[in-house]
């Protein structure tokens, strides 16, 4: 695994022998003859024409992430949000239906319930642990189910093998946002996922310096298995003059060929080469970072659970979690560094806690080498109605932590400072 993090997708065989994948800062790509370029547009050959739909640096990133996920191919895009949007748009035509876990990143929930609904796709949300709810929610028009392998912010795991079996029995594609888990800890394709999406802005990049997203096709999804359910892939495209179901080969699958040709190009959700380069550098140390961050987070979660101001710790190791069996079975390498605590003093305590932190930074990102803290109910999940926020694990007193690479003792001291500030508020509230 660590070897692939460093080598997959790049063999130093560029003309100069550069051992680091270079940044291809070119908008357009030259062709020896007019016929070469014409054939590229006619999809008769592979290559680069104009960087909106890809460039050689993003191609290395695609090959590396596909290899890490054990997938058939990947598509790199401008952000994690673009990855989710494009993956779902490619699977869900107007009039179709999506079943989604009710525990998702707030931005994803907003996209589903607002923009995707505008596009004529119906959505049903379910408790991710209630397998009969997944069964019941799937209808003839359902084309995809969506879950997070570890949910943001409560770090809950799902029984993906069971959900995949339910979905596949009805020819429904399984889409998994695996941003928090990363392929260093968990590969959704090994548990039945058809499509994996990542916000590479987080752990893959790892240093809080680039926005990026990746869609991985694990190779299971075959639109020809049930052609009438996927006409946009199995019938000839008037616009592109091909049947996308035929577009299969190294680095190319029907779904990703369609997503790249149509949505990356039309939405302009291009990943800049410099960002792809930053993510590639981040991935080189992913394995090490995830091991260290997972261990530090588990240590701090355990300690926070014994603190008077903390009503509840939402970390996989916390006692009484409904996903304990799944975590023990599927996450032997750890569960990353994002988890949340519910402070008994509510929002005021959360505010005092955050403001007292000196080492941890108040910021809404996750997956950075620096530890970050935020109050999801008034930030990442603030556009959701309160009941929905609570279901997502973003209560009034919830503070989300994304643990970084600092020394655990320094972090414990800083969190203790936050708790001391919050304890005054709890006392006042009580
Ligand atoms: C689980 C998850 N998926 C997707 C996204 C969206 O990613 P991006 O901010 O790169 O667009 C986020 C952002 O926080 C996230 O936490």
From TrEMBL:
UniProt cross-references to Gene3D superfamilies, sorted A to Z: Aspartate Aminotransferase, domain 1, Type I PLP-dependent aspartate aminotransferase-like (Major domain)
GO cellular component terms given for this protein: cytoplasm
Record-listed N6-(pyridoxal phosphate)lysine modification sites: 202
Entry EC number(s): 4.4.1.2
Keyword presence, Transferase: yes
Required cofactor names: pyridoxal 5'-phosphate
Record key words, sorted: Pyridoxal phosphate, Transferase
Catalytic activity reported: L-methionine + H2O = methanethiol + 2-oxobutanoate + NH4(+); L-homocysteine + H2O = 2-oxobutanoate + hydrogen sulfide + NH4(+) + H(+)
PROSITE patterns linked to this entry: CYS_MET_METAB_PP
GO biological process: cysteine biosynthetic process from serine; L-homocysteine biosynthetic process; transsulfuration
GO molecular function terms listed in the Swiss-Prot or TrEMBL record: cysteine synthase activity; homocysteine desulfhydrase activity; methionine gamma-lyase activity; O-acetylhomoserine aminocarboxypropyltransferase activity; pyridoxal phosphate binding
Similarity comment: Belongs to the trans-sulfuration enzymes family.
PANTHER family: HOMOCYSTEINE/CYSTEINE SYNTHASE (PTHR43797), HOMOCYSTEINE_CYSTEINE SYNTHASE (PTHR43797:SF2)
Name of protein: homocysteine desulfhydrase
Organism encoding this protein: Brachybacterium nesterenkovii
């Amino acid at each position: 695994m660590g070897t692939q993090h460093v080598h997959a997708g790049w063999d130093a065989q560029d003309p100069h022998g550069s051992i680091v994948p270079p940044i291809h800062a070119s908008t357009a790509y030259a062709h020896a003859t007019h016929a070469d370029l014409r054939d590229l547009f006619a999809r008769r050959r592979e290559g680069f024409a104009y960087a909106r739909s890809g460039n050689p640096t993003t191609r290395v990133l695609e090959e590396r992430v596909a290899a890490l996920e054990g997938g058939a191919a990947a598509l790199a895009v401008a952000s994690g949000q673009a990855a989710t949007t494009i993956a779902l748009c490619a699977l869900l035509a107007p009039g179709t239906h999506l079943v989604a876990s009710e525990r998702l990143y707030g931005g994803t929930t907003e996209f589903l319930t607002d923009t995707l609904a505008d596009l004529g796709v119906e959505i049903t949300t379910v408790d991710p642990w209630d397998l009969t709810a997944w069964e019941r929610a799937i209808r003839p028009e359902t084309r995809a189910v969506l879950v997070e392998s570890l949910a943001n912010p409560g770090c809950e795991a799902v029984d993906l093998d069971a959900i995949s079996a339910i979905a596949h029995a009805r020819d429904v594609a399984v889409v998994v946002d695996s941003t928090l888990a990363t392929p260093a800890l968990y590969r959704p394709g090994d548990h039945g996922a058809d499509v994996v999406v990542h916000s590479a802005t987080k752990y893959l990049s790892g240093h809080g310096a680039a926005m990026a997203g990746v869609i991985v096709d694990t190779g299971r999804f075959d639109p020809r298995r049930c052609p009438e359910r996927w006409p946009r892939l199995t019938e000839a495209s008037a616009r592109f003059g091909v049947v996308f179901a035929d577009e299969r080969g190294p680095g190319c699958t029907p779904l990703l060929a369609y997503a790249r040709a149509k949505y990356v190009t039309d939405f302009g959700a291009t990943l800049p080469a410099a960002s792809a380069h930053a993510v590639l550098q981040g991935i080189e140390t992913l394995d090490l970072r995830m091991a260290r961050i997972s261990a530090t987070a588990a240590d701090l979660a355990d300690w926070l659970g014994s603190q008077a101001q903390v009503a509840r710790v939402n970390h996989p190791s916390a006692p009484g979690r409904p996903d304990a069996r799944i975590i023990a079975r599927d996450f032997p390498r750890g569960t990353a560094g994002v988890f949340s605590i519910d402070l008994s003093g509510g929002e005021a305590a959360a505010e005092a806690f955050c403001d007292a932190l000196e080492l941890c930074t108040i910021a809404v990102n996750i997956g950075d080498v620096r530890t970050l803290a935020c109050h999801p109910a008034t930030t990442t999940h603030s556009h959701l109605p309160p009941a929905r926020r609570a279901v997502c694990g973003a209560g009034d007193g919830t503070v989300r932590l994304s643990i970084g690479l600092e020394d655990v003792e320094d972090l414990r001291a800083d969190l203790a400072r936050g708790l001391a500030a919050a304890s005054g508020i709890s006392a006042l509230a009580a």
